[in-house]
# Entry
Amino acid sequence: MKRAVIVICDSLRADLITPHVAPFLSEFGQRSAQFANHRSVFPSTTRTSAASITTGCLPARHGLLGNTMAIDEGDGLVCLSVGKPDFRDRLLRATGRTLHRPTLAERVSRAGSATIAISNVSPGAAYFLDPDGFGWVYNPAGSFGPGRRPLPSAEGLAISKGDAGDSVATERFCEEVLRARIPTVALLWLSEPDYTGHHSPLGSPAHRQAIASADTNVRRVADTVAALDPSGEQILFIVGSDHGMETVDETIDFEGLLIEAGLKSAPRSSDVVVAPNGTSALLYFADPAGVLVGRVARFLATQEWVGRAFVGPELASAGLPTDSPMQIAVTLKSDSRTNPHGVAGHSWVVRDPLEPKDNTGFGQHGGLGKNEQNPFLFISGGGFAPGMRHEPSSLIDMAPTVLRHLGLPATAMDGQGLPAT
Ligand SMILES: [Zn+2]
# Structure
């Protein structure tokens, strides 16, 4: 029986996979198809990435526009964290739908097969892998079976983020999911090195240890896959990350600047709402066709911290919708300066009033910076030949690649099945 196994090492930059820090991944990359020009989506946030991986579509089509989003629940636009356990329900109530495109779990379920995902990142990032409950999703905030039936806590995933929790999740993934339950698609989403990267400098001893943790857990899964399918013909094994990270330079109070410039009336006003996404921000307008959009765009053109602003029709070129209240997306300025640990890449970030902490000198992502747009992708089994591949690939190519291996159609996706050779 053909099946697919996917492991995501959250935030692991391709250039930080070195033999010293990640000995297994370095070696495994050599005997896999290794995609040298693999890119994330925009915003390069975990929750948006999860939706793009599972739908094979850009945010323009799946509709999940960041780690935060502004939605109107009846009192005007308000910015909410997509990561909270209840965001999926609030989005459904406010807009009548979750993701706008079918997920891998839905497509596999309609073909009579099962999907099991174990995710040790935010509940939002976990639930948007399968928001309508076609398969199983396990997350510490609550786990669900088909039909979004809540699983009893004894069957749940009582773990914390970081190495210890990831190790428990990996053990369960290998023994219970891969060996015993044998779903057609199995996905493991590790919290490291993202969790540590947000709280320590990139390349520091703590961050290197977090990469080593992910390396060890991928090795366990790879050993299990090799034991179950020595020929590599049945199991398509995909290992990658959702995005990389930049080092946080300065934090911009985007909302405060708009108020100061007379472009926003008050912190909680819904005339223009800033949805902070780390090194990027998306702006939602009460009147998406109104003159305020142009006024804010002209203001942004004067700001040194703006890397690039996509306004109105330009959003399409960034993979974002043009027909929603979100009318401006900004990626903040990044550069290639190295940090004290020799890791290249800094970026300004947007202050998040929902999580107002100072992360200067630590890792962050969300924008179009070179390093946050540098996830890795290794594919083995399923006929994939080892070797470096230079054609462009993206998160949105993973689902169609899985579906092709399973012999299922990958219709109406933005991504394309990656050629095995
Ligand atoms: Zn992530």
The chain has two domains: 3-64+99-244+373-406, 247-364. The mean pLDDT is 97.
